[in-house]
Amino acid sequence: MHAPLSILNKAARALALALALCLPPALANAADLTVSAAASLTDAFKVVKTAFEKANPGTTVTTNFAASGPLLRQIESGAPVDVFASADQKTMDQAAAKGLLAPGTRADFVQNALVLIQPADAAPALKGLADLAQPGVKRIAIGNPATVPAGRYAQEALTGAKLWEVVTPKLVPGESVRQTLDYVARGEVDAGFVFATDAKSAGAKVRVVSEAATTTPVRYPIAVVAASKNPKAKAFVDFVLSPAGQKILQDHGFKKP
């Protein structure tokens, strides 16, 4: 006996999700709302996910965290994503230009800051960006500017301080801001650039040297993916923008946009 068409369609969607996002098929099958979000949102969105599911009984949310650039490529390749949250405007602008966003759903929902950090027990303690030019500073972690928003912001800050060409030979690229954070927290580099919220999540493992000035405001946009057929997608965006969602984000160090 042949399986009903509805079951085959459901199985096909689950398999596509598992392949596109590298998720186990069982997990993909259980999810009915998929949210792809910038790596720096990991801790906050895990709490948002739980709160949203509690407010929407019967809805299961799968979160997929990575650098904004790779997330965009997944969506562009057809990954069945319902909501996309980026750490920068550039990546979301690219998504909009490709027609990947549902009209009228894009909104800025938080603001962040770029900071220079070093391992907590590092010596000597750095005082600011200018110290990165010192001979004793040999390895500086930075997100890959081509795909990681934090890396682009860091390049902007270093260029503004006339240090980009000086420190380029010292740079250790990371695939996401969280990988950059790990390099610093484990003492594998002398310093690194992450978002203020990432530094906060690391606790006593890192020390914040200073905030790094950027000419572009660090504002995060969120939107429903155009290909999504899930009515809960817009509800998730609305929840993130709601007082309840904003409180969770602010508890994790994010600021109002």
Write up this protein.
The chain is α/β, with parallel strands linked by helices. The protein folds into two domains: 5-111 and 218-251, D-Maltodextrin-Binding Protein, domain 2 (3-Layer(aba) Sandwich); 114-211, Periplasmic binding protein-like II (D-Maltodextrin-Binding Protein, domain 2, 3-Layer(aba) Sandwich). Helices cover 41% and strands 20% of the residues. The chain has helices at 5-21, 25-30, 42-55, 68-76, 89-97, 149-160, 164-167, 177-185, 196-202, 232-241, 243-251, and strands spanning 33-38, 61-66, 83-85, 107-111, 114-119, 140-143, 171-174, 191-195, 206-211, 219-224. Strands 2-1-3-10-4 form a five-stranded mixed sheet. Helix 3 (42-55) links the parallel strand 1 and strand 2. The relative contact order is 0.19. Residues 1-16 and 23-30 have low confidence and may be disordered.
Low-confidence stretches: 1-16, 23-30
Number of domains as seen in the coordinates: 2
Whole-number average pLDDT?
90
* Rg on CA atoms, Å: 19 Å
Q: Describe the strand arrangement of the main beta sheet, using strand numbers.
A: 2-1-3-10-4
Estimate the global geometry from the Cα principal axes: elongated
CATH homologous superfamily grouping of the largest domain: Periplasmic binding protein-like II
Please report the distance between the alpha carbons of the first and last residues.
56 Å
- The CATH level-2 architecture of the largest domain is identified as 3-Layer(aba) Sandwich
What's the number of helices? 11
What is CATH's topology name of the largest domain? D-Maltodextrin-Binding Protein, domain 2
Tell me the number of strands: 10
